[in-house]
Design goal:
The complex is a heterodimer.
Chain A lengths: L1 H17 L13 E10 L4 H8 L10 E8 L6 H6 L5 E7 L2 H8 L7 E2 L5 E5 H6 L2 H10 L8 E5 L3 H5 L8 H8 L13 E2 H10 L3 E9 L2 E10 L6 E5 L1 H10 L7 E5 L5 E17 L5 E16 L9 H30 L6 H8 L1 H7 L3 H7 L1 E12 L6
Parallel strand pairs in A: 1-4, 1-5, 5-6, 6-8, 13-14
Antiparallel strand pairs in A: 1-2, 2-3, 6-7, 8-9, 9-10, 11-12, 12-13
Chain B lengths: L1 H5 L5 H29 L21 H13 L4 E8 L3 E8 L6 H13 L8 H4 L6 E3 L2 H10 L2 E5 L5 E5 L28 H10 L6 E8 L5 E8 L5 H12 L9 H8 L11 E3 L2 H9 L3 E5 L5 E4 L11 H4 L2 H30 L7 H11 L6 H21 L5 H18 L5 H15 L4 H39 L1 E2 L2 E2 L40
Antiparallel strand pairs in B: 1-2, 2-4, 3-5, 4-5, 6-7, 7-9, 8-10, 9-10, 11-12
The chains are: A alpha/beta, B alpha+beta.
Chain lengths: 395, 532
Amino acid sequence: MRSLKAASILFMALSLLTLPGCWSSNEIEDLAIYSGVAIDEGDLSEVERGLEEKGGSYSKQNKITATVQIVPLKAGTKDEVKGKTSPYTNISGAGDSLLEIFRQFSLRLNKPIIGHHLKIIVISSQLLKERNIKQVADFMLRDNDIRPNVKIFVSQGEAMQILTTKLPDEVPSFFINDIVKNQFRSSKIMDPVQMTNLDALMYSKQSFILQTIVQAKRQLAFSGAGIIKGETGKWIGHLTEEDVECINWLTNASSSGIIKANNEEGDSIAYEVKGMKTRIRVHTEQDGRLIFQVRVESKGRISEDWSVEGNPSLSSYQKEAEKLFEQKLSMMMDHLLASMQDRYKVDVAKFCEIVRIQKPQLWKKVKSNWDETFSESTVNLDIHVNVTDYGSTTK
Amino acid sequence: MLSSIQSHIPSWTVFFQAFIALVIPILIYRVYVRLDNLGEDKLSSSGSANIESSRDPLVADYDDNMQLIKSRIGANSDVVIREVTVGGVVKAALIYVKGMQEDHLLNMRIIQSLKEMDAQIPEQIMERFPGSSAHAVSSATEFSQGILIGFMALIIDGRKEGLLITPPQCPSREVSEPVSESLLRGSRIGFTEDLSINTALLRKQGLSEDLQIRSCLVGQTIQRELAIAYMDHIVNPDLLREVNDRVAQIKLDYIAESGYIEQFIEDNYLSPFQQVQNTERPDRVIAALLEGRVAILLDGTPFALIVPVTFSMLLQSPEDYFERWLPGTLLRMLRFGAAFISLMAPSLYISFISFHPGLIPTELALTIIETRQGVPFPALIEVLILEISIEILREAGIRLPKPIGPAMGIVGGLVIGEAAVQAGIVSPFLVIVVAATAISSFSIPVYSAGITLRILRFAAMLFAAILGMYGTILFFLLIVCHLSKLKSFGVPYISPFTPYRWSDWKDFFVRVPIFLMKKRPKLMKTMQSKRK
């Protein structure tokens, strides 16, 4: 009798353990994974407009439009997906709170969306012209589903369009995420700004750049970068692809890429960078202005030469070519410096780091007003290009 | 004042949780202690000792003796009593059990020599018999037991003792390769069912005066011979005493297999882990003896027991030492990995699929989602379906006759897996997980350790299904807690991991070159620490 009682108590204790079931369990196929987010100016999409006409709305102001890219929402066999349907689905909603918009999606989707696998966020430059990036990205920073290594881009034109780019059998957000890996081939791709970097940059009030994505005829491309002014957190302008390249070289972030120059006849001659090293020293003048001594050293090979007469195997010809490349490079650098110092009056090439490390006392003084201090400083360039190689042919 | 304190007093829910957190562990502990006490009296519960002393001596009169013997065992149909006369004068009888004395030539010679013997000098009769094990017994009990064990016995009129003349020639299996522990490299000899052959196999491993084999009888209704083997001057005397004590305490009418002994002498009968290792390999036994362990051999079974056992022994194979140290180490690491996979893979699958989709790499997550579309069950049920069918298949594979066993296993596995995927009951990814689990569990060299992991795997799956990764980690911690508390004959089960003995790590995860392993394991506390 006693053992029966003990057994029944044991049984009840065991069932107590199993009865609560699977806490917070959610099968993976019952979730909608979103891999990309695009944030635009508040504008109702066609679907939403239709819904609103039927009374499907809530109290809100349409300040932003968020688009999430869900992969793969469609239930079906592989063949079906390959043949007819696209591998992703986009859904947009407008409102004045990202979280509210996201929760509102629960009314329109059969599965809850989860952000664990979010790869990229594209913010339209139009939106950032008007709004501080902190306001836009605040939810992403706080949400603990979303990883801190999400890459952030700006778009020329509607960000939503970037995510709807029609690429055969490709999910645009993964596509963009993968383009970044081509950095070793092109120095026009900058190190992506991740969510963690963004957090730091925003709070230190530094100006920074975000890679720009452009789109035409449903094809996309990385092109240059948008400048975010540190104090206001707003988009103030665009840097060209060459500017971004120069920034990568100045900050030693990249040692790849090509420099293409034209000789006197107008023939193209291309120099493939094999190594690029930049050293910057900072001095102060009597009047308090800063002088940056920038020494750029590069070695590489002549990979393409259109000139019919030229002979790259001759060292005299190489010397000539080096001159051409040095001129071209300093032209590119000058263009960048002009953009930074004169046009936008910001430092996005990390000159501040140089000052901070080399002149910490000075940095404390100029920190609060750095962008202006930088704009008034002088940058002296000293460029050395060394052709080490001319490829597999002599002529 | 009071109100400022009041705000710090937690609400009743906190107190309730604290109460639960206090009471449940105490309850579990009490249940455990209760169950453990059940095991305490298992050694002494089955009646008092039945020591039969030689109270019924054989007498000098032939007829009286015959009567006594006949009344004891004569009614058996397989007991043959053959009466002869020694030298044509003295009455005598040969008694033996059919089937135990199959050497007809020998039998004829014995009868012949009895007939031709001079009846007047019966004292010298012993020397005349061929064979070395002829001896005299004076007690009727011992005498009849001798007959039943298989001796050919002789009673002669006028002698107050019976003679057991030729030893049993019971049919036995040939020495063959151990089935459950076959190796690619290493000796192919396994124990047989015959204890004397088994001890001989141990002796044949090499010459040593230190190898001691002591035997005794176990079982009360049916007695069997049990031998305890150890190395003198190496084994710790306390350990040896403990083994002897525990073996002496076994009270059971019949010991069918060494598994019975294992269950009687183990430390904790509630633990899923075996605390006694069984092996069919003489080389494994000798290696263990040289480490200061004790082996127990039982007549009638090819499985010898080795005590004490540590966790790492269950994942070691003699091949680790026969191969060079690098491959040996690699294989051993592989087995540790396989044990982990075999224990955890399905529960990790459940926790990733049901609880933590964010921990799967994105591409894999997408593939899984695609393959799991249309699977109607939650991950736990899905895994259980496939795991249980694999377990059934494995169990069935043992029963199936040899020629169709492997074919059936492959066909069953393939067909069930493939069909279940086709039918949309399970996802293809799960089939990979379950297959990897099954293969991993086959790589564990000790069969019974594999069973332990199979049991625990199901527990791990339940934990994972309730609490996800958190539950899986809790389960792992629980296992580690249990293991660190478990002891086998006084030796901590997961030593040298804890208690930490660096010098023993040479033969733990890695197997260092043999010339570096000059000392016996510290954990065994041997009399002689150096291998010489």
